[in-house]
Description:
CATH architecture of the largest domain: 3-Layer(aba) Sandwich
Strand order of the largest sheet: 7-6-8-9-10-12-13
CATH class of the largest domain: Alpha Beta
Radius of gyration: 24 Å
Number of domains: 2
CATH superfamily of the largest domain: Response regulator
Mean pLDDT: 87
Helix content: 40-55%
Strand content: 15-25%
CATH topology of the largest domain: Rossmann fold
Number of helices: 12
Largest sheet: 7 strands, mixed
Amino acid sequence: MLKRVLTxxxxxxxxxxxLSEAQQSxxxxxxxxxxxxxxxxxxxxxxxxxxADLGYTDGKNIVIESRFAEGHYERFPEILSELIDLKxxxxxxxxxxxxxxxxxxxxxxxxxxxxxxxPVADNLVxxxxxxxxxxxxxxxxxxxxxxxxxxxxxxxxxxxxxxxILGDQGVSEALINAAEEQSRTLYLQPQRLRMAGPNPDxxxxxxxxxxxxxxALLVLEEPVLGVHATEIAALAARDRLPxxxxxxxxxxxxxxxxxxxxTEAIRHMAAYVDKVLKGAQPDALSVxxxxxxxxxxxxxxxxxxxxxxxxxxxxxxxQVIQ
Length: 322
């Protein structure tokens, strides 16, 4: 009887210890997330939610190391070095400036990007179908986005002739050049203003806008402008200037938010991170384009600045802020 009990006990222990060792040796993936703006921007929450939808829970079966540059691009090398030292398995970045810094770091860690205007023009990948190297990701770029935004402003602002276009001096000129060109095709007179971060002279910019008698303001979807979006919206409201932001800046309080959805693009970025964690190589994942548009109308701001939103615009809106 004693021999039988000992045999059962030994068998039990032989099964128990290998399982325990396997559990202890199972590696929880570690993902780095780097954005050029601040934590308040909803993109990180969208990224976490995108991973959660795929079955990942931060702190349980995945660890997300998040970092935010707050518009201080000069900090990218330091932050990237810190993330690399944490032995991350994949790095998720938003914006071309961030992606270029990550690529320049020379790390062999897989990099997945999103919120990039043109990954080929920005020298991130040689080809969207065959990215090559250790970078791939998602772009929400529509070459005609500025034209669509300006057409919306023309609907909302009767007699619109002059439009101020606010850009970020720290990024490439591709976006602001396209916006200028497309404004002229709509018979509008563009006023180009590029802000230098991390502390842009917004008061000076709005003084210049007032001097040129701009009828509306188009705020481009670029990093420094995202960091200071609330201040920009407040200055526009003060000057009773109709301002159009990207959907990701809806909380800033501008009159309109319209453009391709960064939130949707970030969810797709989370799906790419999942594929890489499951063994896919970045150069085997073609860059995906997501062109899901969102229109948000802020009636509270409309009342404050004395603008009447046409019924046809309200009917199109995905969200109306009262």
